[in-house]
């Protein structure tokens, strides 16, 4: 990699040993991917993926301390992924005990470190930092140093920002130095599509299922999707952005997609059209049958596949304000049809603290509460990824949660029936 004189000086230790190590790490990272140079991070804010004070992350706390002591803190304020715990989420005594005393016993300590390093505000914990209520929404063309896969794919695809799928800590290092290695999705060439995905379904495809199918097929490649505008329209309005949030998270977790283009809809596809498609791109056709095939192939890893669900999680990635309102209507209607007054499975809807604050100001909040649905700001994955919760039969319409945990996937409509009426 070619470094400027100033960058070389930092690497040689002119600004201290700590910053030299940070630079060395990013140079080695860039070298692995053939980066030619470092480029400035240009977004106003950063976003960190590591938000949880796991007891096992001792080396991370040491590293953070070294940065703080050396004054090598972030050049940008940042938001961070959701917190792992919330007292509103139902837990039993053992889960509570294990969470507080073992797993996440360093949560308060770690949040203190994040504040010293540059956390935007006390409650800036969410994976949907790009929502208006949170305020970390990058502009088109800006260079980011993020790692949260659902946020990276959204920022690249829907907002037209530029970010690689970095790892935790590397995201912070980019912000400490104010620069990142230039390769992959930062380059024009790296943003070209090597897959054409043709949507030929007879109805609007379920976002989480379509994302899963495409992610598993193209893996880390960039797909150019045609025919989806028939179902989504050509405007990036609130409903479409919500769809793309869920769709993108599924592509990024069921595969490793960091960017997708949708013909006539996403910014680069609108501007550049099919010139974004590489020569010799492969083709994947999505039909109703293909989506059904993908869904039927998900393994059920509950100990007892016929168990009654004990918990339902919705909101991975975090729900938008409109999603919370729409689901309030849907749950009320479902309960009425089923002749019930409260949900029959403990159900948690998760959203950003800022979104929940706005939701509380609406009449929907009291209505949702009346149905028995709990709202929370946690990350369901962090809640579930441990032996005490992993054994629980949990249902979700999040394909990311299905991929990383023992949770079982159902479509939104199926979830609605399960939580309002019961039965599997
Ligand atoms: Fe967000 Fe946690 Fe899901 S970070 S995307 S709620 S796994």
Low-confidence stretches: none
Bound ions, cofactors and other small molecules, one mention each = FE3-S4 cluster
Overall residue-averaged pLDDT value: 96
Taking all Cα atoms into account, the compactness measure Rg is 22 Å
How many DSSP E strands?
Answer: 13
Please list the strands of the largest sheet in the order they lie side by side: 11-10-9-12-13
Judged by helices, strands and strand pairing, the structural class is alpha/beta
Distance linking N and C termini: 56 Å
Number of helices: 19
Report on the biggest sheet. 5 strands, parallel
Q: What is the 3D form?
A: globular
- Helical percent range? 40-55%
Percentage of residues in DSSP E strands: 5-15%
Description:
By secondary structure, this protein is an alpha/beta fold. Helix content is 42%, strand content 13%. The protein has 19 helices and 13 strands. The strands form 4 sheets. Strands 11-10-9-12-13 form a 5-stranded parallel sheet. Strands 7-6-5-8 form a 4-stranded parallel sheet. Strands 1-4 form a two-stranded antiparallel sheet. Helix 8 links the parallel strand 5 (193-199) and strand 6 (223-226). The radius of gyration is 22 Å and the shape is globular. The N and C termini lie far apart (56 Å). Residues 81-82, 127, 150, 249, 316-318, 379-381, 400 line the site of FE3-S4 cluster.
């Amino acid at each position: 990699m070619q470094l400027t004189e100033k960058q070389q000086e930092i690497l040689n230790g002119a600004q201290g040993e700590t910053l030299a190590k940070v630079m060395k790490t990013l140079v080695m990272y860039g070298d692995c991917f053939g980066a030619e140079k470092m480029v400035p991070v240009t977004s106003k804010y950063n976003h960190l993926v590591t938000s949880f004070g796991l007891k096992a992350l001792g080396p991370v706390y040491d590293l953070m301390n070294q940065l703080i002591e050396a004054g090598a803190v972030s050049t940008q304020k940042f938001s961070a992924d959701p917190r792992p715990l919330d007292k509103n989420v139902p837990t039993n005594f053992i889960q509570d005990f294990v969470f507080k005393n073992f797993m996440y016993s360093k949560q308060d300590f770690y949040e203190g470190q994040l504040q010293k390093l540059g956390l935007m505000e006390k409650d800036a914990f969410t994976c949907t930092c790009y929502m208006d209520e949170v305020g970390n929404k990058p502009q088109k063309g800006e260079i980011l140093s993020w790692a949260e896969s659902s946020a990276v794919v959204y920022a690249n695809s829907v907002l037209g920002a530029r970010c690689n799928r970095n790892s935790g800590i590397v995201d912070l290092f980019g912000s400490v130095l104010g620069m990142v290695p230039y390769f992959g999705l930062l380059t024009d060439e790296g943003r070209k599509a090597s897959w054409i995905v043709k949507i030929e379904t007879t109805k609007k495809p379920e976002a989480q299922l379509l994302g899963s199918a495409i992610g598993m097929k193209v893996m880390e490649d960039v797909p150019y999707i045609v025919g989806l505008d028939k179902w989504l329209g050509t405007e990036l309005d609130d409903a479409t952005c919500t769809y793309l949030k869920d769709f993108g998270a599924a592509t990024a977790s069921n595969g490793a997609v960091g960017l997708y283009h949708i013909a006539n809809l996403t910014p680069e596809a609108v501007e550049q059209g099919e010139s974004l498609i590489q020569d010799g791109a492969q083709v994947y056709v999505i039909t109703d049958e293909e989506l059904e095939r993908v869904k039927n192939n998900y393994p059920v890893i509950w100990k007892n596949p016929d168990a009654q669900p004990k918990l339902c999680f919705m909101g991975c990635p975090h729900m938008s304000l409109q999603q919370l309102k729409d689901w309030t209507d849907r749950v009320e209607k479902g309960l009425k049809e089923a002749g019930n007054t409260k949900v029959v499975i403990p159900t948690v809807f998760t959203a950003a603290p800022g979104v929940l604050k706005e939701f509380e100001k609406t009449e929907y909040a009291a209505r949702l509460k009346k149905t028995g649905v709990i709202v929370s700001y946690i990350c369901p994955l962090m809640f579930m990824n441990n032996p005490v919760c992993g054994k629980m039969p949990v249902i979700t319409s999040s394909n990311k949660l299905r991929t990383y945990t023992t949770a079982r996937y159902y479509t939104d409509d199926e979830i609605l029936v399960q939580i309002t009426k019961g039965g599997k």
